[in-house]
Amino acid sequence: MSSEARRLTSATELRALSHPTRLALLDLLEEEGPLTATQAGERLGESPANTSFHLRTLARYGYVEEAPGGRGRQRPWQVVDRATSIVGDELGPEAKLAADALLQLIRERDLQRLRAYESTRAAYPKEWRDAAHEMRLTAHLTAAELAEVFEAIESVLQPYLSGSERRPGTLPVSVGLHMVPTRLPDDPDPVDPAALPEVQS
């Protein structure tokens, strides 16, 4: 995977992702590798025409591309092997709305995956049931330490991401992580409301 992440700042390119079928297609291609529109549609319960439309839309904005082999309707598609990031402080008002909608969809998909695993957990071999984990904790960190922890986790995961070779015995594993402060920092010099100038109406 490219070490330089693509920074999504345009409302148009963010909206291109903000569709459940397109997110499902990206997940499917990451999990299974190159697929034709027909193959992807069969797995998602979508028509080939609808799947092809969404794949072409994703390709227009650089999220997927044609894979080697195949012609016409039999051409396979693959995910563009590049990380993406959304930096809220770089977004204009329209892009911020588009990013909020996209992130809401992504979080809903994460929750669906957890529910799907819980409902099928008993069908997995014991080694997979024992290996699967959920973790919630509170750590006290500075902003710099928080950034360092995230970079360390990202570095540990890097060899196992979708661009790596699919080795025998592996399964696609959903890894969800949020690392956010739970309250605002204390103001070191709080403003005394009585000291503020009076506003004349």
Question: Which helices and strands appear, and what pairs or packs with what?
Answer:
Elements: E1 2-7, H1 11-17, H2 20-32, H3 37-44, H4 48-60, E2 64-66, E3 77-79, E4 82-85, H5 93-120, H6 126-131, H7 143-157
Parallel strand pairs: 1-4
Antiparallel strand pairs: 2-3
Helix pairs in contact: 1-5, 3-4
Structure commentary:
The protein has 7 helices and 4 strands, in the order E-H-H-H-H-E-E-E-H-H-H. The strands form 2 sheets. The chain has a two-stranded parallel ribbon with strand order 1-4. The chain has a two-stranded antiparallel sheet with strand order 2-3. With 201 residues, the protein is mostly helical.
Throw out a few tags for this protein.
201 residues; two-stranded parallel ribbon; two-stranded antiparallel ribbon; 7 helices; globular
Give a short overview.
With 201 residues, this protein is mainly alpha-helical.
Structural class: mainly alpha
CA-based shape: globular
- Describe the sheet with the most strands: 2 strands, parallel
| Radius of gyration based on Cα positions | 21 Å
Give me the number of helical elements. 7
- What's the end-to-end separation, in Å? 58 Å
Give a count of the beta strands, DSSP E runs of length 2 or more.
Answer: 4
Mean pLDDT: 86
Q: Low-confidence stretches at least 5 residues in length (pLDDT < 50)? A: none
Helicity level, as a percent range? Answer: 40-55%
Please state how the strands of the largest beta sheet are arranged side by side. 1-4
Approximately how much beta-strand content do the residues carry?
Answer: 5-15%
What string, H for helix and E for strand, traces the elements in order? Answer: EHHHHEEEHHH
